[in-house]
Amino acid sequence: MIRDPQTLEALLDAVNRFVRERLVPAEALVAETDEIPDDIVREMKELGLFGLTVPEEYGGLGVTMEEEVMVMLAMGQTSPCFRSLFGTTVGIGSQGILFDGTEAQKKKYLPRLATGELIASFALTEPEAGSDAASLRTTAIREGDHYIVNGTKRFITNAPHAGIFTLMARTNPQDKGAGGVSAFIVEANTPGITIGLKDRKMGQRGAHTADVIFENCKVPVSQLIGDREGQGFKTAMKVLEKGRIHIAAICVGVAERMQRDALNYAIERKQFGQPIAEFQLVQAMLADNQAEIYAARCMVIDAARQRDEGRNVSTEASCCKLFASEMCGRVADRAVQIFGGAGYIADYGIERFYRDVRLFRLYEGTTQIQQIVIARNLVREATR
Ligand code: COS
Question: Is the pTM of this model over 0.85?
Fold first, then answer.
């Protein structure tokens, strides 16, 4: 749903200009230094990117899912590390508060998230609990007016920058499944929290992940999301479901960027006395890229519209994440192939995208998890 086409167009114009004039020229520097320059972060805040999904009443832009997708398609036209900086705040880091938080929790945190003053991270994954998220071992045991949190969270995006964590922890150790899990808002400066060293990753330099270690960390009971124990796994699933459409949109955007780079290269590069774009075997790769990008783009917009209409999009969100992330991997591979030897050389930039996009098939639910969600939904609906 697009609420006001003119307002959205103005926002997209601003984002497109920011991407073109500020982010694309900074890509190589960020990849080299592993840091996003402060002035770029400041401009992201000024553009309102940190408050995209925060409702207007709490100081954000309150975009619909379709509008969010449009912004992510635009943000995808550059290195995905830039999206990552505000993406966890507008996505998985803050949405648990929005979906299931109390009014007091929303009032306390959402306005500060919307301005970018606070960065939010999502702390679900653990060393022994990734795809099997319900088996998480971090405990939060109530003692008086606090919970005592112990455990380790792994690969937590933006952990080194986070002001708050949406933390999933087991409040009922007797219940080893999803029902024993609760969600909390934990302030990063709470004593008992240690952030590990930044992970050394395959790609997406400039976006940082790390372990978050909780040792007898005292979290006030007021930080329990929704004031209800045992709801944390469901909160996490709802957050991830929406996040899958968001990530799929980024996959489409990045694939479009790689396709544009590959097309330009194919037109400029001459072999056998003519541009390689004239060769049908190169054209086949460009055409396959285009068809798949178009398919994924249509899927993502359709799923976003259905979600805005209030429909259950569990299956559609997983279809989008599965197809768009796999599509993006295929497009990256063909783009490198079109670049030929240059595709393997860092100066041309395409090998960086090839490494960056590998993450899309892994995080926020692997391709295999999306397959499981889709198939389970199908069987459940057919046997109901
Ligand atoms: N929205 C709301 N509730 C949901 C939900 C959703 N999308 N998906 C599941 N739930 C609810 C279920 O309805 C169930 O509630 P009841 O017990 O009241 O029926 C509860 O959550 C448990 O669900 P389920 O039984 O399906 O849990 P499983 O342990 O079988 O796990 C998968 C399901 C595998 C799908 C889940 O663990 C998952 O998504 N794993 C991947 C996690 C992930 O993406 N990790 C990436 C790192 S985080 S960036």
Answer: yes
